[in-house]
Automatic annotation (TrEMBL):
<dbReference type="InterPro" id="IPR020579">
    <property type="entry name" value="Exonuc_VII_lsu_C"/>
</dbReference>
<dbReference type="Pfam" id="PF02601">
    <property type="entry name" value="Exonuc_VII_L"/>
</dbReference>
<keyword id="KW-0269">Exonuclease</keyword>
<keyword id="KW-0963">Cytoplasm</keyword>
<dbReference type="InterPro" id="IPR025824">
    <property type="entry name" value="OB-fold_nuc-bd_dom"/>
</dbReference>
<feature type="domain" description="Exonuclease VII large subunit C-terminal">
    <location>
        <begin position="151"/>
        <end position="345"/>
    </location>
</feature>
<comment type="function">
    <text>Bidirectionally degrades single-stranded DNA into large acid-insoluble oligonucleotides, which are then degraded further into small acid-soluble oligonucleotides.</text>
</comment>
<keyword id="KW-0540">Nuclease</keyword>
<dbReference type="GO" id="GO:0006308">
    <property type="term" value="P:DNA catabolic process"/>
</dbReference>
<feature type="compositionally biased region" description="Low complexity">
    <location>
        <begin position="16"/>
        <end position="28"/>
    </location>
</feature>
<feature type="domain" description="Exonuclease VII large subunit C-terminal">
    <location>
        <begin position="353"/>
        <end position="419"/>
    </location>
</feature>
<comment type="similarity">
    <text>Belongs to the XseA family.</text>
</comment>
<dbReference type="GO" id="GO:0009318">
    <property type="term" value="C:exodeoxyribonuclease VII complex"/>
</dbReference>
<feature type="region of interest" description="Disordered">
    <location>
        <begin position="421"/>
        <end position="479"/>
    </location>
</feature>
<comment type="subunit">
    <text>Heterooligomer composed of large and small subunits.</text>
</comment>
<protein>
    <recommendedName>
        <fullName>Exodeoxyribonuclease 7 large subunit</fullName>
        <ecNumber>3.1.11.6</ecNumber>
    </recommendedName>
</protein>
<dbReference type="GO" id="GO:0005737">
    <property type="term" value="C:cytoplasm"/>
</dbReference>
Amino acid sequence: MTQTSPEPDAGGAAVPRPALAPTAAQTTAENPWPLRQLSVKVGEYVARMSPLWVEGEIVQLNRRPGAGLSFMTLRDVDVDMSFSVPVREHVLRALPVEPVAGARVVVHAKPTFWTKRGSLQLEADDIRPVGLGELLARLEQLKRVLAAEGLFASSRKQALPFLPRVVGLICGRESAAERDVVVNARRRWPAVQFEIREVAVQGARAVREVSAALRELDELAQVDVIIISRGGGSLEDLLPFSDEQLTRLVAGARTPIVSAIGHEVDTPLIDLAADVRASTPTDAAKRVVPDIVAEVEQLDLGRTRLRAAIRARIEREQSALDAMRSRPVLENPSTILAGRADEIRSRISLARTLIGSRLDRAADEVDHLGRQVRSLSPLATLERGYAVVQDAEGTIVREPEQSTVGQPLSVRVAGGRFGVERTTADPYQPPAHPAAPSAPVAADAADADGPAGPSGAADPARTTDPTTPSDPTTSSEES
């Protein structure tokens, strides 16, 4: 590395200094560029640039007719960035209209860099105003882009509250638009409250200040609706309200937005993005608050209708009640009771008849069943004069050979039981004189079909009281 001229050190000895790095990339902490070197390098780079066309908005114009050179401040149309533009007087005189602050222009200029001050400026040699047709074409193109994104869709619109607690108002400082909104709103609803933010509504600061005020009001919970208001003006005056960033901010606000910019024929882009577009500031005031006079009239009308409806209902109910009272059944309520009593008595009589009929049928059925049972019982046979003869073991004597002379036997008749003793082995011979109480047995004993035939008949001549054998009819009687 080459050495430059030596510099004295603290002891007075010369210390060689390294050569400057030829490029910015070769600088180091030990070998940095001095500030003048950077300024020279930037100036050299800018000097190599060709003249170019740039677009901007005139923020300030300082004319010096005697000096032949004027100075203009040109600001970017979208962001807060500006350059100083020196311009010759003959260039300004060549313009078709006098340039003013806020005008949008296209400038042909050569970039220059002042190394001592480290500032960049543009030396203009031609200035052309941006035409109205070109501005409209740009706005139309931006409008199509935003519409394609859905920023103007009706589905995004929010409904305005019926009676907002606080109304946010963004307007110019001490402007007629502010007075129109406040006066007309309080005339319609005296208790309405406002949060007012006064901002620049045209020029270079308009977009920035309106956007800041909108963000602030949108964050206040008590603000229920926001009005952005400005009076009429030229297309250039209203351009800030067609700014893309401001339009997107309006479309994305949480609070409902009412746009009241210019007159009916003016339609900046925020009119399309806002929830409600008002033709004038006065129209905006009418849209955000109800008219107290009209509301009182509606309340009075509602009360009148309610009274009429209640009165008509009472009259209808009274008429219905009178009609019910005039019925014969209500004039003499005992007729209802008498009719019901007759009906009950008739039903009781019918029930008794039905019950009696069923009881009679049941009694007949019981008698019939009783007769059937009695006809099947052995007692029925005994009642016809037959008897059952049994030996001491209870065996029924059916043949004469089943008993012997002198054997005690038991005789069962319908009326009871008694004992006898067989006295002879010969067939039964009726006695000369009928014996007393047991005659029915002897008389019936001759019937060969009875349970005790001739061989099993008891001898009435001798009766004994043997031990009572088992009764063969017991099971039949019990069954």
